[in-house]
Each structure stands twice: as C-alpha cells, then as structure tokens.
Amino acid sequence: MGDMGHPGARDGVIQVEDLSIIYGRHRALDSVTASFPAGAVGLLGPNGAGKSSLLKTLLGFLTPTSGHASVLGMEVAARPLDVRQKVGYMPEIDCHIPGMNAVSLTAYLGELCGMPSVEAIQRAHEALYYVGLGDERYRNVETYSTGMKQRIKLAQALVHGPGILFLDEPTNGLDPKGRMEMLALIRDLARRKGVNVVLSSHLLRDVEETCTSVVMLSHGKVVGQGTIEALKGASGELFEVRLKGSQRQQEQFAAALAAVGCSATPAQDGMLEVALTDGHGSELIFAEAQRADAQVRHLVRKQPTLEDVFARAVGEK
Amino acid sequence: MPIYDQSYRPYRGTLSSHSMRWLTIARAGLQHYLSRRMFLIFLFTAFIPAIARGVIIWLSHQTNATRDLTSIDGAWFRNFLDWQGQFLLLVCIWPGAILIARDLKTNAIQLYLSKPLTRTDYVAGKFAILAGIAFLLMPAPALLLFLMEVGLSTDTAFISSYFWIPFAILGYSLVVITGAGLLSLAASSFTRSGRYAGLLFFAIVFFSQVGGQLMRFITGDHGWIVLSLPALMDQVGALFFGGPTEFGLHPLPSLLMYGLVVGLSLLVLRRRVRAVEIVT
Asked: Does the first or last residue of chain B, that is N or C, have fewer Cβ atoms within 10 Å of its Cβ?
C-alpha cells in the first residue's frame, strides 16, 4: 500500500521517539523509538510488553514521562483531539454504551466525531454491514455474543472514516471462524480500503497473516522493527538438527555455537533448533559437531516464522 | 459472499466543530430518558405542585376571598422552588447517580474518550442531561407560574414590585442545580453500580444534615449548620429571594461551603473520569 495521502505518511504514519511511560515503579514503556509505516503494522509482544500502553499514549490517554509521539504528522501531546479525529480505536476490553442497539451506538459515536446525525446513521448502517452485523444491527448490544461485540467495536472505530485504525487484540475471544473473518476484514481494510492499521496482538500468527511490518516490544522496549520479510531474512538461517552424542556433547556443541553468536535450542523429538547468524553456513554445524565428537544425523533448513524472529529478538528459548 | 466484499468507503462529509460536541451527549441522554414511560410518569408527578399552584393563581384572580388567602410574592416562589428541590434530590439519585456509574460499569468512558472529546466535554454532556431534567422541574414551572400571574394581573403592580423574581428563580436554580448536579455526578463516578452511587449521594446529603444539626446542638453555635447541604440551599435561597433564613447566618460561610462542595465534586470528577484506570 502506498502513501495514503496523509501528512507524515512518507516518513511513517506514526513516529515515536524516546517515549517512556512510568506507573509508580513500573516502567511500562522504556525509551521506545519506533516508526510505523503506512499499511498494516503489527505491534507485537507478550502480555505486559507495553503494547496497550503505547496505543493509549498515541491516543493521548496517557501522558508520557519523557519523549514524544506523532500520528499522521500531528504531535499527540499538542493535538490529541485532532489525532483522535483521524484515528479509529478498537479497545481490547469489552465496552459498550448501555441501552443502545448497534445502529444507535455506532451512529451516536459517529456524531461524537462531529458527523451530522443523518450521515452518522447512514454510515453506521454501512459500517455494521461491512463488519457482518447487518442482520443483527437492531439488537441491543448488551445481548451480543463475544464475537459480535468484537465486530461492533470495529464498526464504531470505522464509522467516522479514520485514516488509521488502532486494533487492540481484535481476535480475543473469537472462535476460529470468527477469527478468520476478523483477520479478513483487517486485511481488506489495509490492502483494499486504504486504511492504515496498527494491529496490537500477542498472537504472532494473526500479525503474520495481516501485516507487512511489525514493531516488536518486550518489557516496554522495542526489540525489533521492520518489514516481516526483512526481519525473517535478517534473522539468518534456521536449521533443524539431530545430533548423535551424549548430553555433554550436545551442550558442548550448543556452547560452541553460542560463542560465535549463533544458538542451538532443544526442540521437539530430541531435535535441536539451530539459528545461524549472517555470515555462517551449515558447514559451521558440521564443524562444531565434529569438534564436540558428535554426529549430525539429521539436518533440514527451516523457513523462519515470525515466531522465530520474535523469539530471537527477545532472546527466548 | 465474503463479508469483506460489502462496501466501505472513507467519510468525506462535513464535521461539526469540536466545541459543541458535549451537546450530542446531552441530547442523546435527554432523548433516552424522555422516551421512558417511568420517567414521564415521574415528570408528571413533579409537575403536580406546579399545576396546583397554577390553580391557586387562577383562583386568586377569580375571587377576592381567595386572593386574600394567598400572597403571591418572592417568598411564595421561593417556597415553590424549595418544594421542587425534593424532586431535584430524587433526580440526582435517579438518573443522576447512574449517569457515569453505568459508563464505568460497561467501560463506555474509553469509547467516549477515544473519540475527539475531552473529559470536560464528557462531564459537561452528562451534567447537561441532569441540568436539562432539573430545568424542567424547577425554573421552567416557576417561570411559567410567574408569567401566569403577570398575564392574569389587571394592573402592573405585581410586575413593577416583583420584576426581579425571574432573575432570582434562574439564579437560585442555577446555583442549586449546579451544586446538586455536580455532587451527584461525583458520587456516580465513585462506583460502577448506579444503585450504590445513588445511595452514596443520598448518604452525603443525609449525613451532612445530621452532622450539621449535631454539631450545632453540641456546640450551640448556629454556624455549624453550613455543614448541612439542605440548610446550605436555604441560605442560598435567602440570598436570591431575600427574607429570613432559619438560623439568620451571614451568607459568606454558606457561599464558601457551596464553593467547597462544587470544587470537591469537580476534583473527584477530574480524578475519576479517565479513559484509562492506572493501578500502581
């Protein structure tokens, strides 16, 4: 997807510089510097990594302890209302306005964005049809299932035609079919409808299926960012290896690889997952196995997944 | 057909200015309550004293005998507003106390504030719902009664003597509705349960009355009565309509107390109405 015509799109639709958020003694975000390009960007990280805190800071809900952020070229701290005019936010938590059906709720929130009443109602119908709630749109939202509540949250985020969508764990609580449909909607929005999307999720597959770029957070810090393809390439080569040798020999092998910046971590069925950094090839595996007096019985090159990239970025085994 | 084949298009229409968006909250809230039968029954009940007083005004212009029985003056209108204040108290408990509590319960505040709205817009919108209802209960019928009296008068004696009454009605109502409304919203923002918020508001009013009277009884100093919110309203009434107060106090301590109630309510609202609850 190209430049969406929004200011700031050339350098990234969102720019975050040295952003820190501290709650008491807890550092939710620690000097985060990141650039979110146009299109669909995944905001990845385990629970508690700071994803939601970052989104809430970008919406102006939280005041950063230091640093600053801009969305579509607008400084968040200086123009939070202008930012929220251009942003659609789908919160992670279950939320609705009581006593309303889907049409009245979506139209009402559209009116709060400044849309005239008649147009807000028209847009509400369109958004609800788009997210697949067309037949259920006159039902009270309080009677909705979890999947329907996720869809209404997406509809209300879309109603005012935002330039960028913040989706916080949009597939939470969805069954497999609902999850597929939600991901299809997100892909469609980003690829065909020209909406920039920031998808915050701890589900790597969701991000891999919908996004072209990612920003990875762990313990409030950025541990990697870029296009998924580039990150997969930069993560070096990955091999599935079976060694014949004692436990001590396998440990010696792993230690030797670690000494040159590579890694060998135990995988399923007694296999080792060997990650080689750039500049090293499979001959390193044979050489270190020989040095450890072990035999290589199985060696298969693996296609790295986003999970591999993320695991390496956060240094997880 | 896959759901994503349904249409979605960017919005290219006009947008209203930000400054009046709190009105959207107020309008939606008023529409919601005015479409409820229970609420309409309550409103009708609250109009009965006004209807009764309207009948009194009408009768007083029919026969001299009735006219001698009732003196329609500032005290008469103040008495009417005091009476309507009971209904205001009820409105502050329901729906006043549920206005924010219900949004806290359903996490709706995050939805509101994710739109281009400030916390002030949100609170102003919620307050306007309460103030709109309170307007129907207090100043609106009082002003109608005043107009009725003026309309039925055969001379200008009444209007020339009491031209200040509409201003007093509006001023007194504004002060009372602002104080009670903000206190009700502050109570509402304390809990996710509308019921508890209503109880909290009632408890504040009740115990302030008990506390004020108790302190006055113990110390023998009438000044302690300013702790009582109902007595405070009596003082405010005296300020606008003239006439005696129950304890003959100077209005300054009452005004300070009123300012304290409003200030504390705003402080509570500022702390409690947030898009994000931060637990450290």
From this structure: N
Residue A19 — φ and ψ, nearest 5°?
-85, 125
In this structure, the strands spanning A295-302 and A237-244 are antiparallel
3-state secondary structure B203-253: HHHHHHHHHHHHHHHHHCCHHHHHHCHHHHHHHHHHHHHCCCCCCCCCHHH
Q: In which residue are the tokens 């993320």 written?
A: A310
Contact between chains at A23 and B21 (C-beta distance less than 8 A): no
Structure ipTM: 0.89
Is residue B4 within 8 angstroms of chain A, CB to CB?
A: yes
Evaluate whether A149 touches A141 at the Cβ level (below 8 Å).
yes
What are the residues whose beta carbons fall under 8 Å from the beta carbon of A280, sequence distance 6 or more?
Answer: A236, A237, A260, A262
Beta bridge partners of B267: none
Cβ of residue B110 closer than 8 Å to a chain A Cβ: yes
Would the CB atoms of B11 and A161 count as touching at under 8 Å?
yes
Q: Give the pLDDT confidence score for residue A134 in this predicted structure.
A: 87
State the Cα–Cα distance between residues B231 and B234, nearest whole angstrom. Answer: 5
Give the pLDDT confidence score for residue A10 in this predicted structure: 44
Nearest Cβ partner for A62 among B13, B114, B276: B276
Q: CA–CA separation, B150 vs B144, rounded Å?
A: 10
Q: Does residue A309 surpass a pLDDT of 90?
A: no
The maximal CA–CA distance of chain A, rounded, in angstroms, is 78
Place of tokens 């602002």: B178
- Determine whether the interchain pair B115/A112 forms a contact, defined as Cβ–Cβ distance below 8 Å: yes
Partner-chain residue, chosen from A94, A130, A161, that has the shortest CB–CB distance to B107: A94
How many other C-beta atoms lie within 10 A of the C-beta of residue B71?
9
Helix (H) or strand (E) holding A83: helix A80-86
Using alpha carbons only, give the angle A131, A137, A141 rounded to the nearest 5 degrees.
95
Decide if pLDDT at A34 tops 90.
yes
CA B259/CA A172 separation, integer angstroms: 47
Residues 6+ apart with CB under 8 A from A190: A1, A39, A40, A196, A197, A210, A211
User: Helices (H), strands (E): how many in chain B?
Assistant: 13, 0
Rounded to two decimals, the pTM is 0.87
The three-class DSSP label of residue A19 is: strand
Sheet holding A40-44, edge to edge: A87-90, A164-168, A196-201, A40-44, A213-218, A221-227
Closest by CA position to B29, among listed B102, B85, B119, B111: B102
CB A36 within 8 A of CB A14: yes
Distance CA(A103)–CA(A180), nearest Å, equals 24
Q: Are B25 and A112 inside 8 Å of each other by CB?
A: yes
Confidence of residue B202 (pLDDT cuts 50, 70, 90): very high
Reported confidence tier of residue B1, pLDDT bands at 50, 70, 90: very low
Nearest residue of chain A to residue B11 (CA atoms): A161
Query: Cα separation of A12 and A3, whole Å?
Result: 9
